[in-house]
């Protein structure tokens, strides 16, 4: 009896080879799962595919380039130099006493991770329509692979940040503290929020293509509403009160406070970011699962 794994277009129908426990059954029909379900058990069964997608995303980044993986370092370094020149030297923005190179490199490293997770996940249905229309697998595999591949890229760029941090630490110009231990939590919240917003946009862009044009513009605006190139302490009180509603702001301030010794660390605001990300993921899951059932007809 032939297995139907990876061939059924209906997620409610899963085929498998008969085993001693399952008797003679080679086909299991399950009811449609809840819109709130991420079907993580099914994702785990397809973990090999998740690994292959993650590896594909990493290799595709530097495939057919002359400098190859060096682009992982070149992009944040050149962006940092431009920010130092434009925002540090010309605009004269304060960096809370932190060396400008370190201040901007820290912000760019964390921002790149969130922005890449958001922007690439937001077009996952459109970019993978040729695969989705041919074979069944948990659609969540595609956005998860983007988050994981960007996590590898973030780790590489974070190592670059640590190298600069060590240099300035030896020079006595920065003072990291125990708040840096929160970094894994910050990255997890950032990944959750990027995944949630990306899933939400990917569901909406299948029907409303105008959002694709708005995406990059919107992400750029969001960066200016987040303390990436400036510290929150330099904002006027009225502006700071508005920016406090941005769930990304506490993540950047906490990361900067832990690693560089200047910034804000407020557990209440960090809890707000975590709650916002969890609710956003819940809402995005409902929309994503709803659109997933008819996405091929729309795309």
Can you describe what's shown?
- The chain has about 300 residues and is mostly helical.
- It has one domain.
- A two-stranded antiparallel sheet has the order 1-2.
- It is globular and about 70 Å long.
Q: Any key phrases for this structure?
A:
299 residues, mainly alpha, two-stranded antiparallel sheet, 2 strands, 63% helix, globular, disordered N terminus, transmembrane helix, membrane, ABC2_TM
Q: What would the average pLDDT be, to the nearest integer?
A: 82
Q: Which structural class fits the helix and strand makeup?
A: mainly alpha
Rg (CA only): 22 Å
Which residues form runs of ≥5 with pLDDT under 50? 1-16
Terminal residue distance: 34 Å
Which strands sit side by side, in order, in the main sheet? 1-2
N-to-C SSE string, H for helix and E for strand = EEHHHHHHHHHHHHH
How would you sum up the global shape? Answer: globular
Protein name: Transport permease protein
GO molecular function, one term: ABC-type transporter activity
Pfam families: ABC2_membrane
Keywords: Cell inner membrane, Cell membrane, Membrane, Transmembrane, Transmembrane helix, Transport
Helix-strand blueprint:
Elements: E1 13-15, E2 27-29, H1 40-45, H2 47-62, H3 71-90, H4 100-121, H5 124-127, H6 129-132, H7 141-170, H8 183-205, H9 210-224, H10 237-243, H11 249-260, H12 267-292, H13 295-298
Antiparallel strand pairs: 1-2
GO molecular function, one term: ABC-type transporter activity
GO cellular component, one term: ATP-binding cassette (ABC) transporter complex
Keywords: Cell inner membrane, Cell membrane, Membrane, Transmembrane, Transmembrane helix, Transport
């Amino acid at each position: 009896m032939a297995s139907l794994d990876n061939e059924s277009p209906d997620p409610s129908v899963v085929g498998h080879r008969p085993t001693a426990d399952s008797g003679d059954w080679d086909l299991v029909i399950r009811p449609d799962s809840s819109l709130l379900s991420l079907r993580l058990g099914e994702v785990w069964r397809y973990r090999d595919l998740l690994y292959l997608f993650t590896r594909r995303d990493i290799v595709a980044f530097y495939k057919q380039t002359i400098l190859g993986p060096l682009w992982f370092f070149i992009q944040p370094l050149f962006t940092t130099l431009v920010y130092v020149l434009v925002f540090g030297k010309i605009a004269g923005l304060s960096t809370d006493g932190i060396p400008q190179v370190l201040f901007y490199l820290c912000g760019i490293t964390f921002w790149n991770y969130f922005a890449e997770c958001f922007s690439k996940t937001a077009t996952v249905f459109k970019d993978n329509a040729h695969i989705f229309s041919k074979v069944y697998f948990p659609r969540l595999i595609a956005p998860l692979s983007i988050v994981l591949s960007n996590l590898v890229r973030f780790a590489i760029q974070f190592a670059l940040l640590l190298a600069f941090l060590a240099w300035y630490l030896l020079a006595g110009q920065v003072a990291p503290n125990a708040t840096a231990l929160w970094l894994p939590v910050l990255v997890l919240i950032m990944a959750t929020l990027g995944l949630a917003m990306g899933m939400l946009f990917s569901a909406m862009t299948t029907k409303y293509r105008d959002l694709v044009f708005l995406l990059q513009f919107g992400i750029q605006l969001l960066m200016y509403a987040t303390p990436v190139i400036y510290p929150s302490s330099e904002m006027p009180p009225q502006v700071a009160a508005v920016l406090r509603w941005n769930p990304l702001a506490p993540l950047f301030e906490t990361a900067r406070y832990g690693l560089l010794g200047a910034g804000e660390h407020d557990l209440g605001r960090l809890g707000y970011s975590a709650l916002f990300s969890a609710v956003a993921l819940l809402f995005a899951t409902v929309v994503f699962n709803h659109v997933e059932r008819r996405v091929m007809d729309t795309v």
